[in-house]
């Protein structure tokens, strides 16, 4: 790990093909800043990305990375972290990727409390497939596949995380650059699963959950002196409050012990002997 | 009396049938006898008929036969289910005090032992099966002290009191038979030898092979009959600095394993039928991201939930063709329990040398069958590890492009690119399921696409040339008739040779552990008058690929009842097939 890493070291020289103005630019910049601020460098960082406009992030960042199949980024991240507790693992994807096809994995990654950071670029729509409803779309949000709106309440990802036993729950807004980077940084520093739902507007397909909407409606928990993220009940109140949109760290469990520590996994699993391990014949003798 | 002895214990699932059988099998192995076990079980935890069968001999045994000599019957159903295997010399041990009126055909010897009462006297009804084992020792003239050793192994961890009670229970059964029956006319007499044998099943051999090969990460989701690999590794992998994760489903399991593999660990997942279906989504990603991953499929009867506890070799097409698009891969299918070990080691080497998915295809019969081997059959000194083109810091430079980017998917002559794992300075790169250039960046450029597809496929060609895609051979190499088999049928085939020989039929047997790439059998088939492909499926999936390779028709023996081949039955099938007309060309 070198101390002179700058956030631009995490930038690849591939130009993003996101639409001009897409929230994902800000989301990515904040992630890169947070990684650099926490003393990581590209050679010890692994970024796992999902599928969607959001999932392209791995291409535009410079680090070890895997861009997998739709919805399965969290299991990949889990595998990386288990094999290499020494590596900083960051997983990113969209709301469709994470809360629809990958919802099952989300619940279980949260529950396992694997020490990685999960950034969901929540634009409340499917961007890459050109504008269908996502699990976080409003129930009256008209799209090509839901001409009268989904007519179902949206998923509340923060509540889903809380109910699954999350140890760190936060929300940020990609265009509030400083705060967003700060919040992601806290997630990285958290010992365990650091979950950040990022409002990352889609300027092409979502004309409801826009920059203006978030700017006008976002309440920053940092400005609420009463909010103590270590207070579960307070977190619950904020998370279940359907009247407001919040940013900040909603909840953090001070006693969080990450999965690999709970299970005594500390070694770098990439190191193996040249032949069978020395005492391997014991494995055979066991069957006497 | 035949040289080998066939013994079984049967009852309801939950009656401790498995552990009873295992204890007896271990006692026999301790006595230097060869053992081959098989299990009949239903897909229920309680209430289903279940039996544990042991065939034992001083000579090697590697198949089941249609004969039962000693049967410990805890239920009437045990007797009914096995009636066609029982014969005049069979002895049936049962508990006459129990509420069922045992119906035992007259010609067989009924040995009524008050299993439960004797067990209670020895310290608890739970030991009634051990009483039965003691009785079985007496009937067969098998020294009960070998049983003591097995009881110590089994219950040693639970304290000496439990061990002593069990030994007492065995003695009680032995003495009861001694005092109440004169069974010398049955003529059973079990010879022992000084040989040391280990007793293990196919899944244990896979797990052991994985550890020997340096597997450090395993993610899986429970499914019969693959789960016991996960259970085996769970208990041991941490001693080697590894870890097993029980994932939330198979999609997760394969993706976790893929993550660990990309991070540099030797990594594996295993499943069966329905689980392989779910994993299929990720096959292509493993191949295009060029991740070394071992994916084991322990086949069971399909399709759908099929017969979860029954034998089949129906997933060969899946292993060969599963996944959308065209997925380069290797398919290795062990043909014996020792091969389960060695082919697992090989699978890890192939995966890393060629950075590609390796399917390790086994089957239910192999996974649950226990067999004795001299420990040298698993000689760990023979294990070699080949990590392929894993580059370290000093080698990175060779693979950087003019801008200093690591060419993780470099187009090379042999199709294999350098592999760098996280932490390797200056080699940070991205991998993706999208088509990509040498650097791993998305491209749809026609030439790049063709280069990458060719590159990945070239790995298979390189491996085809550089590795031994051999087969094993039995019988008479000059015989006119050729039998081809894959997977666990090998043992039954080898034993069938004896039966065939008795009938004056001479055959050559080829057992193929490599499905893809596979040995070219053109010459062998052309030299043969008749070729028969033997497999446990209805459509003859291996026969199809052989016909495709050789461009000629072969005969087929297919069994898809859910039960593995038996040696004597297979000999009859072969005899019938050899006299059958050749199908129209
Ligand atoms: C198994 C599978 N099903 C469907 C798709 C098609 N698909 C690609 S992206 C996507 C939705 C992405 O939405 P979201 O996660 O919200 O990301 P965004 O594009 O909005 O950033 C879908 C359905 C796919 N790639 N794989
Ligand atoms: S479609 Fe929407 S989410 Fe996708 S790049 Fe454009 S603005 Fe961003």
Short note summarizing the structure:
Chain A has 288 residues and is of the alpha/beta class. Chain A contains 11 helices and 8 strands. In chain A, helix 1 packs across helix 7 and helix 4 crosses helix 5.
Strands of chain A, count? 8
Q: Distance between termini of chain A?
A: 48 Å
Major sheet: arrangement of strands of chain B: 9-8-10-11-13-12-19
Bound molecules: thiamine diphosphate, iron/sulfur cluster
Per the principal axes of the C-alpha atoms, what is the gross shape of chain A?
globular
Please give the largest β-sheet of chain B: 7 strands, mixed
Q: State which percent range the strand residues of chain A make up.
A: 15-25%
Helix content of chain B: 25-40%
Tell me the number of structural domains of chain A.
Answer: 1
- The CATH H-level homologous superfamily of chain A: Thiamin diphosphate (ThDP)-binding fold, Pyr/PP domains
CATH-assigned fold name of the largest domain in chain B: Pyruvate-ferredoxin Oxidoreductase, domain 3
Named CATH topology of chain A:
Rossmann fold
Largest interface: A-B, 60 and 70 residues
Task: Return the CATH architecture of the largest domain in chain B.
Answer: 3-Layer(aba) Sandwich
Give the total of domains of chain B. Answer: 3
What attributes characterize this protein structure?
heterodimer; A: 288 residues; alpha/beta; Rossmann fold; 8-stranded mixed sheet; 11 helices; 8 strands; 32% helix; 16% strand; globular; B: 585 residues; Pyruvate-ferredoxin Oxidoreductase, domain 3; 3 domains; 7-stranded mixed sheet; 6-stranded mixed sheet; 38% helix; binds thiamine diphosphate; binds iron/sulfur cluster
Describe the protein's topology.
The complex is a heterodimer of chains A (288) and B (585).
Chain A: H1 23-37, E1 45-49, H2 57-60, E2 64-67, H3 73-83, E3 88-94, H4 95-101, H5 103-112, E4 117-122, H6 157-163, E5 168-173, H7 177-189, E6 194-199, H8 211-217, E7 218-220, H9 232-240, E8 245-252, H10 259-262, H11 281-285
Parallel strand pairs in A: 1-2, 1-3, 3-4, 4-6, 5-6, 7-8
Antiparallel strand pairs in A: 5-8
Helix pairs in contact in A: 1-7, 4-5
Chain B: E1 5-12, H1 17-30, E2 34-41, E3 49-57, E4 68-73, H2 76-81, E5 86-94, E6 109-112, H3 115-122, H4 128-140, H5 144-155, H6 160-180, E7 198-201, H7 202-212, E8 215-220, H8 227-236, E9 243-246, H9 250-262, E10 266-271, H10 273-288, E11 293-299, H11 316-321, E12 330-332, H12 337-354, E13 357-363, H13 364-368, E14 370-373, H14 393-396, E15 430-432, H15 446-466, E16 472-475, E17 481-485, H16 490-502, E18 507-511, E19 514-516, H17 522-527, E20 530-535, H18 541-550, E21 555-558, H19 567-579
Parallel strand pairs in B: 1-4, 4-5, 5-6, 8-9, 8-10, 10-11, 11-13, 12-13, 17-18, 17-20, 20-21
Antiparallel strand pairs in B: 1-3, 2-3, 7-14, 12-19, 16-18
Helix pairs in contact in B: 1-5, 3-4, 3-6, 4-6, 5-6, 7-8, 7-12, 9-10, 16-19
